[in-house]
Amino acid sequence: MKSKIQLLVALFCLTIFSACKKDIEETVLAPSIKMANETAAINGKVNEAITLKANNTLGNEISQEWLVNTELKSNTGLLEFTPAKSGVYTIDYRATNSAGSYSFKYVLTVAVPEVPTTIASNVYVTTLFEFAPAAGQFMNEAGWGNQESGKSIEGKKATPGISLGAFGGYAVYGFDHTVINQPEIDDVIIYGNAIASLSEPGVVWVMQDENGNGKPDDIWYELAGSEVGKAGYIRDYSVTYTRPTPPTLSVSWKDIKGNTGIVRQSFHKYNHYPLWISADEFTRIGTLLPSNGIKGSISAPLAFGYADNTAGGTDKVDIANAINKHGNKVILKGIDFIKVQTGIMADLSILGELSTEVTGIADISLIK
Ligand SMILES: [Ca+2]
Ligand SMILES: [Ca+2]
Ligand SMILES: [Ca+2]
Q1: Ligand 2 centroid to residue 187 C-alpha, Å
Q2: Do 38 and 143 reside in the same domain of the chain?
Q3: How much distance in Å is there from the Cα of 305 to the middle of ligand 3?
Q4: Of the bound ligands, which one is closest to the alpha carbon of residue 336?
Q5: Helix (H), strand (E) at residue 2
Q6: 185, exposed or middle or buried, with CB in 10 Å at 0-12, 13-18, 19+?
Q7: Per-residue pLDDT tens over the stretch 310-339
Q8: Do residues 232 and 341 share a domain?
Q9: Ligand 2 centroid from CA 286, angstroms
Q10: How much is the pLDDT for 6?
C-alpha cells in the first residue's frame, strides 16, 4: 500500500515538474547582446585582421550574422575580417530569435597604404611596370622604341627616353615612395622633347596602391588637363592596330567609331608594328584629346596638364586634378604609380605619326 501511494506522489510530482519545465522552455527571451567594442566608427589597415565580438549576455539560443558590405562573413558572435584594400566598409551585426532582434553597425575606415618619403627616396620613377606602345616610327628600334628604352628613365632623366607610338600607346611606372598631393601646387613633372611647333600630348593617369602589394593593379585616375569636356575629347576611345604583311608596310588602324587610317611607314627602317606582340592585332583604349591644333607637321601645345606638350619638355601636373571614370573629381592623398598615354591620333606629315615621348618623370617635392 505504502509503495502505491509513493508511486502516485512520484507521478504527480513528475507531471507538475514537466508542466513547469515546459512553461520555462516556452518563455523565450529576446537577444541581449553587449558588443565588446561599442564605438561605431573604427579604423583598420590593409592586410591587417580586425576582430569584433558580440557577447550574448543571456547565453540563450540566438542566430547571429555579420555582414561586411552586405556580404555574410560569420554566423557566430565573432568576426575576423582582413580588409584587402583601402576604403570605407560597413559592418552589420545582427542577432535574432523568435522573441526579437538586436543589431549594431560599424563603419570601418581603411586608409590607403602609404610608403613614406625618406632621405633615400628617388626623385624619379624607379620601376617600369609596363611598356605597351601603339604602332609607331620608333618601334623595335634601340633608343626610343624597345623594352630597354622604357627602362632608360628608371631613376633618372634620359635622352633618348621612351616613345609611346600612336594613339593609346602607354607606359606604366612606379615611384619608390608615395608622391603626396601637395596642396595648391603641381606634384609631378614629366620631361619630354616637345618644341614650340611640335607638341605630342600624352594623357597622364595616376594610381594609388590601394591593396598595398606594390603593383599597379588598382584603379587608374585620369589627371584632367585643359581639354576635358571640349569638342574632340573622348573618354574610352579605342583603336585597333593590325600587323602588316609584309611587316615593313604601314600599319593600318581602325577606331571604335569605324574610322580607319594608317601609321605610315616613314624613313625609319624598323617595322612600325611592335614585333614583340605575338597577336596579329591589338587594341589600345584611352582618352582621346582634340586635334584641332594640328596643321600639317605643326602641332600646337594644349593649355595645360599633358606630357610632351610644353616647349622645352617640362610638363607639370597636379594630383588634385584626378577624375574617375565618370569624370568626377576624386581626392587622392598621394599616388604610387603613373601612366603616360599618347592622346591624339594624327599623322604629322613629314614627321610621321604623333607619338608622345617621355624622358623622365619626377616627384617635384624632391627636386633640389
Ligand atoms: Ca597638388
Ligand atoms: Ca596594388
Ligand atoms: Ca615628342
Answers
A1: 21
A2: no
A3: 15
A4: 2
A5: helix 2-26
A6: exposed
A7: 999 999 999 999 999 999 999 999 999 999
A8: yes
A9: 20
A10: 55
Shared domain for 178 and 283, answered yes or no, is yes
Q: Residues 217, 283: one domain?
A: yes
What spacing in Å lies between the alpha carbon of 205 and ligand 2's midpoint? 15
| Strand order across the beta sheet in which 127-132 lies | 127-132, 170-180, 334-342, 202-207, 220-223, 322-323
Q: Measured in angstroms, how far is the CA atom of residue 101 from the centroid of ligand 3?
A: 66
Residues with Cβ < 8 Å from 130, sequence gap 6 or more?
A: 170, 171, 172, 216
How far, in Å, is the centroid of ligand 3 from the Cα of 32? 70
Q: What is the mean pLDDT of residues 17-38?
A: 76
Q: How far is the CA of 355 from the centre of ligand 1 (A)?
A: 27
Cell of 170: 602607354
Question: Do 67 and 148 have their domain in common?
Answer: no
Confidence of residue 9 (pLDDT cuts 50, 70, 90): very low
Whether 284 is covered by a domain: the verdict is yes
Q: Judge whether 292 lies within some domain.
A: yes
142 shares a domain with 76: no
In a domain, 264, yes or no: yes
Q: Which ligand is nearest to the CA of 115?
A: 2
Distance 200 CA to ligand 3 centre (A): 5
| Ligand 3 midpoint to CA 92 (Å) | 54
- What are 44's strand-pairing partners? 110
pLDDT in tens, 180-200: 999 999 999 999 999 999 999
The alpha carbon of 336 and the centre of ligand 2 are apart by a number of angstroms equal to 9
Residue 23 falls within a domain, yes or no?
A: no
Closest CA to 63 of 20, 85, 93: 93
C-alpha cell at 350: 613629314
Number of domains in the chain: 2
Tell me the pLDDT tens digit for each residue of 211-254: 999 999 999 999 999 999 999 999 999 999 999 999 889 999 99
CATH number at residue 46: 2.60.40.10
Query: Do 339 and 250 share a structural domain?
Result: yes
Which domain range does residue 84 map to? 33-110
pLDDT digits (tens, 9 = 90+) for 143-185: 898 888 899 999 999 999 999 999 999 999 999 999 999 999 9
Task: Kindly identify the ligand whose nearest atom is closest to the C-alpha of 184.
Answer: 1
Show the cell assigned to 309.
606638350
Query: What is the Cα Rg of the chain in Å?
Result: 32
